[in-house]
């Protein structure tokens, strides 16, 4: 979703009001997903003492998702609308999409329906699964 919003914000033929909304939404979406990922990965500090919170933040601050969160927060709160700042967001979205497909593509029914008995992709079966009206 963030990828689509970022593309909408950069594409030059989109109306300016829609482009500005997409610009803000793509940064907000990336900021929210970065915070959620940090919470899912690291949880909360073990204790709410100053030393425990300091150790927790030292481990969180070094991550890539925290850097993206700060980056997005900077541009969401500014009144500038710089389109080229969305390029890292597009790259991060493509990276997450590729990681998701790498882990989950082998379990998809489209992929498993196109395999032959030896685990190799059967081109004819793949074409008929992808395009049922195609006749070889």
From TrEMBL:
<feature type="signal peptide">
    <location>
        <begin position="1"/>
        <end position="19"/>
    </location>
</feature>
<keyword id="KW-0732">Signal</keyword>
<feature type="transmembrane region" description="Helical">
    <location>
        <begin position="68"/>
        <end position="91"/>
    </location>
</feature>
<protein>
    <submittedName>
        <fullName>Uncharacterized protein isoform X1</fullName>
    </submittedName>
</protein>
<comment type="similarity">
    <text>Belongs to the PER33/POM33 family.</text>
</comment>
<dbReference type="InterPro" id="IPR051645">
    <property type="entry name" value="PER33/POM33_regulator"/>
</dbReference>
<keyword id="KW-0812">Transmembrane</keyword>
<keyword id="KW-1133">Transmembrane helix</keyword>
<dbReference type="InterPro" id="IPR005344">
    <property type="entry name" value="TMEM33/Pom33"/>
</dbReference>
<dbReference type="Pfam" id="PF03661">
    <property type="entry name" value="TMEM33_Pom33"/>
</dbReference>
<keyword id="KW-0472">Membrane</keyword>
């Amino acid at each position: 979703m963030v990828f689509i919003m970022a593309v909408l914000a950069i594409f030059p033929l989109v109306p300016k009001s829609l482009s500005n909304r997409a610009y803000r939404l793509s940064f907000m979406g990336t900021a929210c997903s970065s915070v959620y990922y940090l919470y899912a990965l690291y949880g909360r500090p073990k204790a709410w003492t100053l030393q425990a919170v300091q150790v927790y933040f030292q481990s969180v601050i070094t991550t890539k998702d925290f850097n993206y969160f700060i980056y997005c927060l900077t541009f969401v709160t500014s009144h500038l609308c710089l389109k080229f700042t969305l390029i890292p967001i597009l790259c991060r979205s493509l990276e997450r999409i590729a990681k998701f497909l790498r882990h989950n593509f082998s379990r998809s029914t489209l992929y498993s329906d196109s395999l032959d008995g030896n685990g190799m992709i059967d081109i004819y079966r793949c074409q008929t699964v992808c395009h049922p009206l195609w006749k070889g």
